[in-house]
Amino acid sequence: MACLSSVSKCGTLIFVVLLALNKCNCKTIPRYIDLLYDPDMDRNVSLLISSKGYPVEDHYVQTKDGFILSMQRIPHGKVNKNTGPKDVVFLQHGLLSASSDWVINFPNQSLGFILADAGYDVWMGNVRGNTYSRRNVNYTPDRKEFWNFSFDEIAERDLPAMIDYILNSTGQKDLFYVGHSQGTTVAFALLSEKPEYNEKIRLFVALAPVATVGYITSAISYLAPFTSEVHFLFKLLGVNEFLPNDELMKLLSEFVCDTRERFICEDIMFLFFGTDLKELNETRMAVYSAHTPAGTSTKSIVHFAQMVNSKKFLKYDYGKKGNQLNYNQPTPPEYDVLKITTPVALIWSLNDKLADPTDVGLLQKKLRSIVSSSCVSFPLFNHGDFVLAVDAPKLVYNEVLGLFQRFS
C-alpha cells in the first residue's frame, strides 16, 4: 500500500497498525460494525456547542509571528441568558488536544457547558498547529517553518495574544484561567517569564499540572532515552507534525472506533495520557477519537522528552551551539516558578501517567502563591479523565466552581 499523501500520515498509519497487530484477535476480522452513528463525530467544536442549544462565537487572534489562533466563546448558558458583564473564564487545552475537550461530553458532564450555566463568560483557546489553528500569514502547514515550535513559543506568543484579546473584548481587567496538562505548562512558563500577566489572571486552576516530567510513566518516557535519535529521524524523514487530526484518523473513528475493535482507538488515546475505562463513556469513543489527537509539532514531543531526561522545567534544548545562539548560554534556561504571584490551585490524581504525583509534589514545594492542592478522591482517575470522565463534575468541576466563588 503506497502512502501518497505525506510522511506524516504514513507515520500515523504505521503507529495504528502496530497497535492493532499487538492486540488484535484476528478471529474478529471482518469487523462487526455497529450501526450506531453519533453526529458529534463530524461536528467541529462550534457545532458541538450549538447542537446542545448553547450560543457560540468564533474569534480569531494573530500572534506576533503570524499564527492565526481560533477561540470559541460561550457568552452565556442555555437557561441563564444574562448578557451583561460577568466574570470571564479562559479554558486552555492540553497536549495533542483542542478546545473541543471542554465540550466533548454532554452538557452536564462538560466543564465548558457547566461554567456557562453557572453564569460565567466562557472562552476556549486553541494553540498553534492544532485542528483549529492551522493558519499562519507567512507559512502553510506543509512548510517545516510552520512546525518550528514547542511549548516555549505557545507560552511566549499564543497565550499572551489570547489573554489580551479576551480582556480587550470583554472589558474585564482579569480572568479565571483553567489549564489542563500542557495548558498548565504554558501558563507556568508565561507567569514565570512575563510578570505583568500575573495581574491579568485572578486565579489559575491547574488540572493535572505539568511542569517537570521526570517521573512520568506515559509513552513519552519511553522516547526520552532516545531523544537525539528520534529528533534526527524526524528531521531526516521530514516529519514535522505529530498525530494530526487528518483523514486517516477520521476514517479510523468511523470504521474502527465505533466497532468491536474500538480497543485500537483506546490504545491511541491512552498511550500518552491514560484514562481508566470505568470513568469513560465508551459509547462515545468514536466521538473522542474524531476530535483527539488534534495534532502538534514533533518538536513539542521532543521538548517533553528532553525534560524527562533533565527532570527540570527547561526551555527547548538546541544543543550547545544552538543554545548559545538562542539563549546566549550553553544550556537551556530553567523556568523559575518562584516568580509566579498569581494565586494557583492544583488539582491532581494518583494514577496520572503524565502529571505524576512526585512531579506535582516538587512543583507544589516551589510555588509561593499556591492557595490549594487537592488530589482527586477516585484512585484510578487519570490524566485524560480531567476532561473525559463522566464523573469529572462530581470529582473535579464542583471544586473548580467553589474556587471561583472564593475568588469572585
UniProtKB/TrEMBL annotation:
GO terms for molecular function: hydrolase activity, acting on ester bonds. Residues 47-105 form the Partial AB-hydrolase lipase domain. It holds the Pfam family Abhydro_lipase. One of its GO terms (biological process) is lipid catabolic process. InterPro entries: AB_hydrolase_fold (IPR029058), AB_hydrolase_lipase (IPR006693), Lipase_euk (IPR025483). The keyword Secreted does not apply. The active site is at 181 (nucleophile), 352 (charge relay system), 383 (charge relay system). The keyword Signal applies. Residues 1-26 form the signal peptide. SUPFAM superfamilies: alpha/beta-Hydrolases. Keywords: Glycoprotein, Hydrolase, Lipid degradation, Lipid metabolism, Signal. Belongs to the AB hydrolase superfamily. Lipase family. This is Gastric triacylglycerol lipase. The lineage of its organism: Eukaryota, Metazoa, Ecdysozoa, Arthropoda, Chelicerata.
